[in-house]
Design brief:
Layout: E1 4-9, H1 16-26, E2 31-36, H2 39-46, H3 54-62, E3 69-72, H4 81-86, E4 90-93, H5 101-106, E5 111-114, H6 125-129, E6 146-147
Parallel strand pairs: 1-2, 1-4, 2-3, 4-5
Antiparallel strand pairs: 5-6
């Protein structure tokens, strides 16, 4: 059996930063599972709808090389349900994703790795939308192989960004 890697995100207006994230995640194992955030969850958590529909974002990710399984997350507050379904060995987080504290406690067997940013000043969905903040959390300083913080207070879990 291969090494399962899970990454999650909104993947709105797919750009080279997303592609780098997927490539880095794929390199961590043999099977890459990608969960695309549901429109309702994005609206609830980020306070705005994504630019593209969940079906458009799902289709864009399904065309990416190295992705073995792509699916929509579940609607609702249990954002870790899909993690239980996939049962990954590794969870890859984007440099600006902050996991909920329950992630590491709920999946102690999982290695949680933060990917390196890919020119975030140039390739970030919020920049494409013209958002002033440009950051959904995190400090942008994480590097590949950096364990994710387990005591994060942010409510931006995998599958929600």
């Amino acid at each position: 059996m291969g090494k399962r890697v899970l990454c999650c995100g909104t993947f709105d207006c797919l750009h080279p930063g997303h592609q780098s994230f997927l490539e880095q995640a794929a390199a961590l194992g043999t099977d890459l599972f990608v969960v695309v955030a549901r429109d309702d969850n994005v609206l609830r958590i980020k306070g705005r709808p994504p630019t593209q529909s969940e079906d458009e974002r799902l289709a864009a990710i399904s065309r990416q090389p190295g992705v073995d399984d792509v699916r929509l997350g579940y609607v609702g507050n249990d954002l870790l349900r899909v993690v239980r379904d996939i049962s990954p060995d590794v969870i890859a987080l984007g440099y600006d994703q902050v996991p909920p504290a329950a992630l590491s406690e709920s999946f102690p067997h999982c290695e949680i790795v933060v990917m390196e940013p890919h020119y975030p000043e140039e390739f970030k969905s919020s920049l494409a939308r013209g958002d002033a903040s440009g950051n959904a959390g995190g400090d942008g300083q994480a590097t590949r192989g950096t364990p994710a913080p387990s005591d994060a207070s942010s409510a931006v879990p995998p599958g929600a960004t």
